[in-house]
Amino acid sequence: MNQYFATVGRGLEAIAAQELEQLGAQAVEPQFCGVAFQGDRELLYKVNLWARIPFRILWEIDQFPCWDATDLYEGIRDIDWTYFLTPDRSFAVSATGKTDRLNHSHFTALQVKNAIVDQQWEQFGERSPIDTERPDLLVRVHLAQERCSLSLDSSGSSLHRRGYRPAVGLAPLKESLAAALIQLSGWESSQMLYDPLCGSGTLPLEAGLMALQIAPGLFRDRFGFESWCDFDAQLFETLCQQAQARRLEVLPAPIWGSDREAAVVDQAIANAENSGLAERVYFSQLDLSDVVAPADSGVLICNPPYGERLGSDSDLGAFYKQLGDVLKQQFKGWTAFVLSGNKELARAIGLKSAQRTPVYNGGLLCQLMKYELY
């Protein structure tokens, strides 16, 4: 069993751990901004294909005491890099963390790079090129408490970049956070889902992918592990075929999104087309004042602006009051979830929340507020 680590957004560790367990991960342990777990190569590929919440899946290949630059260099040289890297493959090094004597990430990365290429010169008489944009192998080094943790990044670019969303509006939610919000809401695919402030459509589209059992990794053109020396192309192709076979054609219940801005609705429609959901998830241009419940019951989930997207604070306060009025007057029988990063604006909704879940949107602490509408 290999030791892996999934990096996740702050505050999402517990729900990411649940997702990993459902995918078959063993020894799952939530940690700060991540989840440690164990599994084999098949699980590594499967998690990259199916996990909706993590950013990256790292394979931890070694840990060793590290007090200074000499310890770091020798620890890296002690690893047999021929198993992971040959001179015809490129690599890059990313460093985070620090110790008392190693507190500059660029120097740490350079020391690791030197140790690897020095071993290659000794063994092969040649060395791998460095490619910081699209390396065949991305080595990640983390220093903490006088120890070095060395991992290989199996994902490549961040998993939240699904690949279906080139068109985005102002302050879009990351796809991984949108998926987490939907899971935190407890929404089930048999319920209608509606986002009346959909922007470029991330929340409805992520819900659509979940409901149709579409693996988010199928949209990507490449994972980091595909250029590793031990890449099992046949195993990965089998997993992709299995994922394709699981796709459903019909949504169990409608998923809608609307927004007052025609341009961002066009973006949402374009993203729906890119994700193969154009005929399944419905988007329309509609001002919030004209929104009515499209069914007797369902789940409403939205991410209203809480920064400068509408202008002054008074504009936003009036907007939040209007949102609260629409929920009270038009959505009886529904459950609503509103993400907000501003407590004063949240109060302007004028409804008592049944539950508040802290969620970080980037570095901003927000609240996912639940409203039972009777």
The domain count comes to 2
Q: What is the percent of helical residues?
A: 25-40%
The count of β-strands is 14
CATH superfamily of the largest domain: Vaccinia Virus protein VP39
Task: Give the N-terminus to C-terminus distance in angstroms.
Answer: 50 Å
Tell me the CATH topology of the largest domain: Rossmann fold
Strand order of the largest sheet: 2-3-1-4-7-6-5
Which CATH architecture of the largest domain is right? 3-Layer(aba) Sandwich
The total count of helices amounts to 10
Radius of gyration: 23 Å
Report the sheet-strand fraction: 15-25%
Low confidence ranges: 308-312
- Structural class category: alpha/beta
Domain THUMP: 43-154
Protein name: N6-adenine-specific DNA methylase-like
Organism: Synechococcus elongatus (strain ATCC 33912 / PCC 7942 / FACHB-805)
Pfam families: RlmL_1st, THUMP, UPF0020
Polypeptide structure, described:
Pfam families: RlmL_1st, THUMP, UPF0020. This is N6-adenine-specific DNA methylase-like. GO terms for molecular function: RNA binding; rRNA (guanine-N2-)-methyltransferase activity; rRNA (guanine-N7-)-methyltransferase activity. Keywords: Methyltransferase, RNA-binding, Transferase. This protein is of the alpha/beta class and 374 residues long. It folds into two domains: 152 residues, VC0802-like (2-Layer Sandwich); 166 residues, Rossmann fold (3-Layer(aba) Sandwich). The protein is 32% helix and 24% strand. The protein contains ten helices and 14 strands. The strands form two sheets. A seven-stranded mixed β-sheet has the order 2-3-1-4-7-6-5. Strands 10-9-8-11-12-14-13 form a seven-stranded mixed β-sheet.
